[in-house]
Amino acid sequence: MDYGEKRLMDKNQESLFVRLIPFFERYGILLLILIMIAVLHLLQPDVFLSWRNVTNIFKQVSWQSMLALGVFMVIVTAGIDLSVGSIIMLSLMGLAITSKAGMPWYVVMLVAPAIGFLCGMFNGIGITLLRMPHPFIMTLGTLYIFRGIGNLISGGVPITGFAEQIRVIGNGKIKLDVIFGEGAREYIPTSLILMIVIFFIFWIFLNHTRIGKWIYAIGGNPGAARAAGINVDRILIVVYTLCGFLAGIGGLILAGRTNSAYPNAGLQSELDAIAAVIIGGASFFGGRGTVLGVFAGVMIMGILRNGLNLMNVSVFWQQVLIGSIIILAVYIDVLRRQLATRT
Amino acid sequence: MSDNLVLEAKSVSKFFGTITALQNVDLHLNKGEVLGVVGDNGAGKSTLMKVLSGLYKPSEGSLFFDKEKVTLNSPRDSQNLGLEMVYQDLALAGNLPIGDNIFLGREPTRKVGPFNFLDHKKRKQLTEEHLAKLKINVKSADQKVEELSGGQRQAVAIARATAFNAKIVLMDEPTAALAVKEVGKVLDLILNLKKLGVSVIVISHRMDDIFTVCDRVMALFQGTNFAESELKNTSRDEVIGWIMGKKD
User: Fold this and answer.
1) What share of chain B is helix, strand, coil (3-state, %, to 5)?
2) Which of B92, B107, B118 faces A224 most closely, judged by CB atoms?
3) What is the value of ipTM here, to two decimals?
4) pTM of the entire predicted model
């Protein structure tokens, strides 16, 4: 339907159309997920919705979702963090080395988030106090620095074998014998529970605390935030630190899932994280986006990869498809905005 | 100078690198007074306002609130002293609703255990009461600011400035971006504030604004005090002359 035709439409019909826009704005992405699930179920009726495959998807996205959630907060402030893929690798290596050194499991478990926390804080301090012209530059620098340090401390070789308590986080199973009977094979992955809890905490943080509100305000208009007496630099340091911290949690989950630390861990996963955030409806210009949208963006990426793998689509085609979806998702957003501002 | 002095700036200078934005500027403001500040572009009006609100630190000179010398480290300090600023660029976050903008940085919260959470209900209620008090009409307190007209945004900015019983309100070109029919409402709002005992400083290019609301007018020229007069002792032509740097 072209523009002229739309103008000729019956007025009532148009107002109904306009009234539907907020509905799609809020739930459109969940609708998209349902459609993807339905299509993949039709194509792979025996496998796709099986317990094994669904838990597999969740286990796969659990560590990636930590990166996406952190990068999301950064993008809400109209910033960017390119270093999360390297933070996950460095925190993984730090964890592996303390584990190898024979530290008790509870120390090892704290190491990854702690390293992530410090890396993120380093980014935040660089962006604010050193007055780097754009977060892109600071985090591009630390993308190299953190991975380089990770390889220096590990000697560039994989380290395997962690304590049971670490493995449980990424690979643990909560048995559902109560529901499915003794010895049932159905279970819920611990990493799924962890992911849901962390997303819920950050949903509360962003929507129901003052700092969360300020993060959105900074993304909308940093000048307004400053004029309101908000210490913008301090909030930015908090945001980048939390982003690094979440990447560290991602490193912990990945350590548990793979039971090893390897030099290529998290390679290019910062780009996957950004893609998930953008697909989830956050604006690259800051101030817009929801935690639920990030979750949906992560799930869309995960379901798409899983579905394409199940159908033996080559990795190269997967790249083409994911790239196309990013562009399509943003283009739909552009169209929606045009409709919403049309009067 | 009267005993009603609420705000005074003495010999304030502000340098940006090699540029001198303000040079030994004096300013005083009495309770319930509306002071007009005029001057050409680059005369230093906006810089002076930003110094008074604590957004800029003066390079030299001092500020007095209620005759007490103060040092402002951020706009929050001046807010705590009862001074609010309505910025020329409005300083609103377009992605946030009206209520969030009015209470930005001072959000009502409620305690749950050791944590402070935003009190969405209270914010909405306070917003609606305040908008009603100022007779500002909007569809809903939850409307995003980017969806509002220029006049409505100006009204939100003024609502924001006055939501916490400000004693002094600074306004930078409050009518510049407005449609003609919206200008009158904003000027009424300023006269209303004066009636409530609030002191107002208005920066404006529009002589209509100055001669409708102000008690006194002062002119800056190239970053210095140029002229000053009670409104009743001057004329539009004279004030326009001051702006261009001409004195009899």
Assistant:
1) 35, 30, 35
2) B92
3) 0.83
4) 0.85
